[in-house]
């Protein structure tokens, strides 16, 4: 996948799932601050790393009026004193939401690097289901010079019978 370490605070069920859904689809911007606080409590972040995020599609950003993963990253950066900036742009504007797992893994979103890519990165997203989006982002970042990529997500889906990192 191209990611050195990946951690999530919660499994994508129950209250954690409700919080992600509220942030994504119900305009609950305050949820991003809570998610960032939860990540800050469990993360031991390298102060030399740059914090960035998986960008949402332009259509979703227009509809919501914000990018929830960017909000989480910016809150987390302020809380932990980390440099935070956009490093990725979204090339393809298909949302992953609602697509079957095989389709997500087979055709993940496409990204491009925005300017110079820092050597050490912390890649933030709200939730990971298959890991395909994180993997696609990491490939671009590695190709553009990142040597260390730590992914952090508020939640992640667990699949029975699959040994996940």
Q: What do you see in this structure?
A:
The protein has one domain (5-156): Rossmann fold (3-Layer(aba) Sandwich), CATH 3.40.50. 38% of the residues lie in helices and 21% in strands. It contains six helices and six strands; from the N terminus they run βααβααβαββαβ. It has a four-stranded parallel sheet with strand order 1-6-5-2, sandwiched between helices. Strands 3-4 form a two-stranded antiparallel ribbon. Strand 5 (120-128), helix 6 (132-143) and strand 6 form a beta-alpha-beta unit. The longest helix is centred in the N-terminal third of the chain and has 13 residues, at 30-42.
Give me a quick take on this structure:
This protein is of the alpha/beta class and 165 residues long. It has helices at 14-25, 30-42, 58-64, 68-80, 101-106, 132-143; strands spanning 5-11, 50-53, 88-90, 111-113, 120-128, 148-156. The radius of gyration is 14 Å and the shape is globular.
Task: Give the secondary structure arrangement, pairings included.
Elements lengths: L4 E7 L2 H12 L4 H13 L7 E4 L4 H7 L3 H13 L7 E3 L10 H6 L4 E3 L6 E9 L3 H12 L4 E9 L9
Parallel strand pairs: 1-6, 2-5, 5-6
Antiparallel strand pairs: 3-4
Helix pairs in contact: 1-2, 2-4
Q: The biggest beta sheet, please?
A: 4 strands, parallel
CATH domain fold name: Rossmann fold
Helices, by number, come to 6
Overall shape: it is globular
Level-1 CATH class name: Alpha Beta
Mean pLDDT: 87
Number of strands: 6
Spatial sequence of strands, sheet with the most strands: 1-6-5-2
């Amino acid at each position: 996948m191209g990611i050195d370490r990946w951690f999530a605070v919660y499994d994508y069920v129950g209250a954690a799932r409700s919080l992600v859904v509220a942030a994504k689809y119900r305009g609950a911007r305050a949820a991003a601050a809570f998610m960032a606080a939860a990540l800050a409590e469990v993360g031991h972040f390298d102060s030399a790393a740059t914090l960035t995020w998986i960008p949402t599609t332009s259509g979703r950003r227009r509809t919501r009026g914000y990018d929830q993963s960017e909000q989480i990253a910016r809150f987390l950066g302020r809380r932990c004193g980390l440099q935070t900036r956009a490093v990725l742009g979204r090339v393809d504007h298909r949302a992953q939401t609602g697509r079957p797992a095989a389709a997500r893994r087979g055709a993940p979103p496409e990204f491009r690097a925005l300017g110079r890519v820092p050597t050490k990165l912390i890649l933030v997203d709200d939730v990971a289901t298959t890991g395909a989006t994180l993997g696609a982002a990491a490939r671009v970042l590695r190709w553009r010079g990142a040597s260390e990529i730590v992914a952090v997500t508020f939640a992640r889906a667990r699949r029975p019978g699959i040994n996940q990192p």
